[in-house]
Amino acid sequence: MKILDVVCSKGRTGFYFDDQRAIKAGAGHDGFTYIGKPVTDGFKAVRQAGEAVSVMIIVEDGQIGYGDCAAVQYSGAGGRDPLFLAEDFIPVIEKLIKPRLIGRELNSFKELAEEIDNLNDENGNRIHTALRYGVTQAILDAVAKAKKQLMCEVVADEYKTQVSETGIAIFTQSGDDRYNNVDKMIIKHAEVLPHGLINNVKEKLGENGELLLEYVGWLRDRIMKLKTTPDYAPVLHIDVYGTIGLAFKNDVDRIVEYFRQLEKAAAPLHLRIEGPVDVEEREQQIKVLAEITSRLHKENIKVEIVADEWCNTLQDIKDFADNGAGDMLQIKTPDLGGINNIIEAVLYCQEKGVGAYQGGTCNETNRSAEVCVHVAMATKPAQMLAKPGMGVDEGYMIVYNEMQRILAVRKSRK
Fold first, then answer.
1. Would you list which residues are annotated within the binding site for (2S,3S)-3-methyl-L-aspartate?
2. CATH superfamily of 2-159
3. CATH superfamily label, 170-413
4. What is the enclosing helix (H) or strand (E) of 58?
5. Which residues are known to be catalytic?
6. Residue positions forming the annotated binding site
């Protein structure tokens, strides 16, 4: 079965592009938007509508494979590729990618995905991560349709894995509405919650970590109060954006002692802390996270460390895993480019005995989230992110429902 055509359309994402540099420089809130001028190239406002490009691969029998090119909320920051605007990048697909795909046989996802993922533009630079992300999604769907399989089955066949017979734990994120949104998560029995967005020492963590301690205790009590089944015991997973390191001046002894307090506040629930420190340099970040992780293990403090900052690419994930820099690594799906890299990242973490968190961004689309569910069901990460958006319900619905479809279809064949 061959590719007949490639068609693109402009789309919206489930959240927004935010100019992180402008926000860090002091851009203030005005309702849901920000006051001030953008400073990152491509931005017309500090917060602007997220954009996507839907890629549709037309198969010669008339079927269509779908994928969505999308980039993270803080595009253009932290060494990432520039702001992803549909009008700028649809011509790249038309000129560079479409001619390469038309007429190709749809007999191997891995082969075609790796080719596109390694494609350079006319200047010799690798094409934008969002393009690689969305086009490889469409390739996976097109191959699945040509072979009359589910996308997860194609991945399992080509990477020698087994499709999960149960759902993958879903991690829901609260945004700043970290109290009301927790109630939604508990009502829906989310397995991992709440993210929390603890990105400010003074207002959210506390100068000595006291505000986070209070919040963790509130989470535990709220879950116990609202749960409707006695066995519901979600994992608490909180992203602190390096604020623990800021509050305790990256003093590992003080950080470890603080984790001992957090463990007690969360008990009997299990706690994960994402991004406890950010030392703003990759090699040093690996070293410090490895030290904290090792100390927690040695002192039998049962709080898991999740790596995020400076762990962006497939090579980063391998290096963090090799050095024990965290109990779990976030695999930020759009930042890895081709979804073939997500597959490789999850499998590598498992090989090294490190937890794989298949993450992503609130600024994705329903389609990219659905394809990521198939990747997760084929590779079995410890958890995956409910996405897109920050309202809990929509992202959880999209991810949960796609998992249930996969399980139901496969069960019906037995």
1. 173, 330
2. Enolase-like, N-terminal domain (3.30.390.10)
3. Enolase-like C-terminal domain (3.20.20.120)
4. strand 47-59
5. 332
6. 173, 239, 274, 308, 330
DSSP state of 255: H
Tokens describing residue 253: 């002894």
One digit per residue, the tens of pLDDT, for the chain of length 414 reads: 999 999 999 999 999 999 988 987 888 889 999 999 999 999 999 999 999 999 999 999 999 999 999 999 988 876 788 999 999 999 999 999 999 999 999 999 999 999 999 999 988 999 999 999 999 999 999 999 999 999 999 999 999 999 999 999 999 999 999 999 999 999 999 999 999 999 889 999 999 999 999 999 999 999 999 999 999 999 999 999 999 999 999 999 999 999 999 999 999 999 999 999 999 899 999 999 999 999 999 999 999 999 998 999 999 999 999 999 999 999 999 999 999 999 999 999 999 999 999 999 999 999 999 999 999 999 999 999 999 999 999 999 999 999 999 999 999 998
Q: Where are the alpha helices (DSSP H) in 59-167?
A: 86-92, 98-101, 109-117, 129-147, 151-159
Report the distance separating Cα 165 and Cα 155, nearest Å.
15
* Residue type present at position 37: K
Residue positions in the annotated binding site for Mg(2+)?
239, 274, 308
The domain segmentation of the chain, as residue ranges, is: 2-159, 170-413
Does an H or E element contain 261, and which? helix 252-266
